[in-house]
Inverse folding.
């Protein structure tokens, strides 16, 4: 399953999204993630909105005729920020990012339905991590990749959730130095590949790709 970036979207969709955000935005800082389209031609966009005391995440879907499917906001007692999202095989958006809770960062994931209804959200229990990429398979299982700070170590963390938001497995990997998430893919056998950039602290950076099977066993690191 491949992501369709905003450069591939039809002109009317980009214009509609831009005009809508300009017309309906409120006095707050925010940023937009790259828009995506599903198999039915709907364009989905996710953006962050934040004030001094609250945060909101906006999800907007426009159909191929330029009409709204939904335009909703997510907010709760925690401060949350979206960093990546993906549209699953049914056209439902899943969003990953970071939740700030009691002074610590946690990996945060949420899912909405194809009709813009909130389904679930989940936060990881390991502090010091922020998600930077997310993918799903055709049946709705979800993989999330994050970069973490753990004492003087900087591992990457990979989480696998099922379609209902229940954690299936979690794996950490530390190459040494600082490890940055760069890409995440899953194949037809549910083998997930995580590509990261490693900074060894001496001015050298190099890529590393990890491959895990459907059960969370690491198959390769190259």
């Amino acid at each position: 399953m491949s992501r369709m970036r905003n450069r591939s979207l039809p002109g009317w969709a980009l214009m509609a999204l831009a005009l809508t955000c300009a017309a309906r935005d409120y006095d707050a800082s925010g940023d937009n993630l790259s828009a995506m389209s599903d198999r039915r031609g709907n364009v989905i966009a996710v953006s962050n909105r934040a004030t001094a005391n609250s945060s909101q995440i906006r999800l907007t879907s426009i159909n191929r005729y330029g009409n709204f499917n939904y335009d909703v906001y997510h907010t709760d007692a925690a401060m949350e920020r979206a960093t990546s999202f993906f549209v699953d095989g049914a056209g439902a958006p899943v969003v990953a990012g970071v939740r700030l809770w009691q002074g610590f960062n946690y990996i945060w994931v949420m899912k909405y339905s194809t009709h813009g209804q909130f389904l679930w959200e989940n936060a990881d229990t390991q502090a010091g991590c922020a998600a930077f990429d997310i993918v799903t398979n055709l049946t709705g299982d979800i993989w999330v990749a994050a970069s973490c700070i753990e004492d003087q170590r900087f591992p990457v963390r990979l989480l696998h959730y099922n379609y209902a938001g229940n954690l299936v497995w979690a794996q950490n990997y530390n190459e040494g130095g600082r490890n940055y998430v760069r890409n995440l893919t899953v194949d037809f056998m549910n083998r997930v590949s995580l590509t990261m950039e490693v900074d060894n602290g001496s001015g050298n950076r190099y890529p590393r790709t990890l491959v895990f099977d459907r059960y969370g066993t690491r198959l390769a690191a190259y």
